[in-house]
């Protein structure tokens, strides 16, 4: 059993802390956000993540998991300090490291025993060395025995607990092999491959992985657009490609493109890093351009179908950046709603989980209680997020409620033939047949 302090109790910090506690460690999760910590101390989850509440509750009861805003208390006796603070996009697309810096400074100012500082945040290559330097310089008069290990996180929102507990791999990078081995011990029971490498390589593995996944999606979206013009169906193209073991089927779903709190900022940060160091990230640039155009393309298709969008009522189903999360950061829906409103459309919307976040971030949008309210008087419906709830929809009821039965299936969730037979005018993404 190890004593672990997790600095930053957001998606990654909360899941990491909870899972390490569940594996038998003594974990204290720390955050500067008092409301967040006070909620967690009442077992109120600050995020929607399936299964999280039960595991937090069980581990709090067992006394293995505590939440605090007190840095001294959290760092006292900790064997490991995991940094899991945000690294949002700065003005030029670079990763903003101010929160990582203040976490490193807290360790330097408050710790007086040997400690392993583990960086879980997604950070530019070289940040591990930079963190070590910050700590060393602040402790110039009173050296601290510490090592920095990079341990990038690969979990996905919506399946975070499962991804943490059953990872495809754990990546550890350090200049100190012993420190990396100590962190590896924490993961030993998960029985997954553990790659131990140097700091910079570990940091790059994280960016390269996210950028590669985003590239696959942009690739299939480009193929989808070509399919539309040539009369092929991209969903079957992806299936046919996916049978090839060298390709695989995952992350080949064409649609409105990738959003969320990570792909957009990480691809941007990697491209920024490349430019800063004198290389031209042409592929990354194309990957970002294709992604942005996917959202514009659906508006183009809608405008073509309706003549123009002024005073048209458009329903949007799904607002979160993907199903099973309430997160709408960089969600395709945000840009689509903005583009629709810009052209004078009235936008109505419903999401199973993201309504609270949407009401805070989206202006002049009519938020509805269910898909049928959205359909009432609508000239078209755009499906922006493929929630399971929308698979089971009563299409007859939807059809009756709409003013014009136009469906823009932005996630290729529905069966085009079924909908066409029911009298809908159906548009998918890359389903040109
Ligand atoms: P988040 O915004 O949900 O949470 C960050 C938390 O850190 C916030 O609660 C904030 O109050 C807290 N914080 C900021 N400064 C602090 C400080 N000095 N001391 C203590 N707490 C502080 O962020 P997140 O989604 O958990 O992401 C964290 C990092 O992990 C990012 O670098 C992100 O790219 C990476 N990541 C995220 C995911 C994901 O699915 N969200 C997956 C893999 C990696
Ligand atoms: C992604 C990665 O999958 C995680 O491994 C990584 O840890 C995380 O980013 C991170 O660094 O934060 P996440 O953003 O939670 O996880 O969600 P994904 O399931 O990867 O989906 C990202 C976006 O791509 C969503 O908008 C989704 O709709 C879109 N997507 C995904 C597609 O458009 N097509 C696909 O085939 C797959």
UniProtKB/TrEMBL annotation:
This is UDP-glucose 6-dehydrogenase. Belongs to the UDP-glucose/GDP-mannose dehydrogenase family. Its EC number is 1.1.1.22. NAD(+) binds at residues 31, 36, 87, 122, 157, 265, 329. Residues 315-416 form the UDP-glucose/GDP-mannose dehydrogenase C-terminal domain. The lineage of its organism: Bacteria, Bacillati, Chloroflexota, Anaerolineae, Anaerolineales. It comes from the Bacteria. Pfam families: UDPG_MGDP_dh (PF00984), UDPG_MGDP_dh_C (PF03720), UDPG_MGDP_dh_N (PF03721). It is an enzyme of class 1 (oxidoreductase). InterPro entries: 6-PGluconate_DH-like_C_sf, NAD(P)-bd_dom_sf, UDP-Glc/GDP-Man, UDP-Glc/GDP-Man_DH_C, UDP-Glc/GDP-Man_DH_C_sf, UDP-Glc/GDP-Man_DH_dimer, UDP-Glc/GDP-Man_DH_N, UDPglc_DH_bac. One of its GO terms (biological process) is UDP-glucuronate biosynthetic process. GO terms for molecular function: NAD binding; UDP-glucose 6-dehydrogenase activity. It catalyses: UDP-alpha-D-glucose + 2 NAD(+) + H2O = UDP-alpha-D-glucuronate + 2 NADH + 3 H(+).
């Amino acid at each position: 059993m190890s004593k672990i302090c997790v600095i930053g109790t957001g998606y990654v910090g909360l899941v990491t802390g909870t899972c390490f506690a569940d594996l038998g460690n003594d974990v204290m999760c720390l955050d500067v956000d008092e409301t967040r910590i006070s909620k967690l101390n009442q077992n109120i989850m600050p995020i929607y993540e399936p299964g999280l509440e039960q595991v937090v509750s069980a581990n709090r009861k067992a006394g293995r998991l505590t939440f605090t805003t007190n840095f001294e208390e959290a760092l006292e006796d900790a064997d490991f300090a995991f940094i899991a603070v945000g690294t949002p996009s700065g003005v030029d697309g670079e990763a903003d490291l101010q929160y990582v810096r203040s976490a490193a400074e807290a360790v330097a100012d408050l710790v007086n025993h040997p400690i392993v500082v583990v960086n879980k945040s997604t950070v530019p290559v070289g940040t591990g060395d930079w963190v070590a330097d910050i700590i060393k310089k602040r402790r110039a008069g009173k050296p601290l025995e510490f090592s920095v290990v990079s341990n990038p996180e690969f979990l996905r929102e919506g399946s975070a607990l499962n991804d943490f507990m059953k990872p495809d791999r754990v990546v550890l990078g350090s200049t100190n092999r012993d420190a990396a081995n100590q962190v590896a011990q924490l993961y030993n029971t998960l029985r997954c491959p553990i790659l131990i490498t140097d700091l910079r390589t570990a940091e790059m593995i994280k960016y390269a992985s996210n950028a590669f996944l985003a590239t696959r999606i942009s690739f299939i979206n480009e193929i989808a657009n070509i399919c539309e013009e040539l009369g092929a169906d991209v969903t079957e193209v992806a299936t046919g490609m996916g049978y090839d073991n060298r390709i695989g089927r995952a992350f080949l779903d064409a649609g409105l493109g990738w959003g969320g709190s990570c792909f957009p900022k990480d691809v941007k940060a990697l491209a920024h890093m490349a430019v800063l160091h004198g290389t031209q990230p042409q592929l990354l640039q194309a990957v970002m351009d294709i992604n942005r155009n996917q959202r514009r393309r659906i508006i183009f298709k809608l405008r073509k179908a309706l003549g123009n969008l002024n005073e048209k009522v458009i329903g949007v189903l799904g607002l979160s950046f993907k199903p099973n999360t309430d997160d709408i950061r960089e969600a395709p829906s945000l840009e689509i709603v903005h583009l629709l409103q810009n052209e004078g459309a009235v936008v109505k919307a419903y999401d199973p989980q993201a309504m609270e976040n949407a009401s805070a971030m989206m202006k002049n949008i009519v938020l509805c209680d269910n898909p049928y309210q959205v359909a009432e008087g609508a000239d078209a419906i755009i499906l922006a997020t493929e929630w399971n709830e929308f698979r089971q929809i009563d299409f007859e009821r939807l059809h009756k409620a709409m003013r014009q039965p136009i469906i823009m299936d932005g996630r290729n969730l529905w069966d085009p033939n079924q909908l066409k037979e029911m009298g809908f005018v159906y548009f998918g993404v890359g389903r040109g047949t």
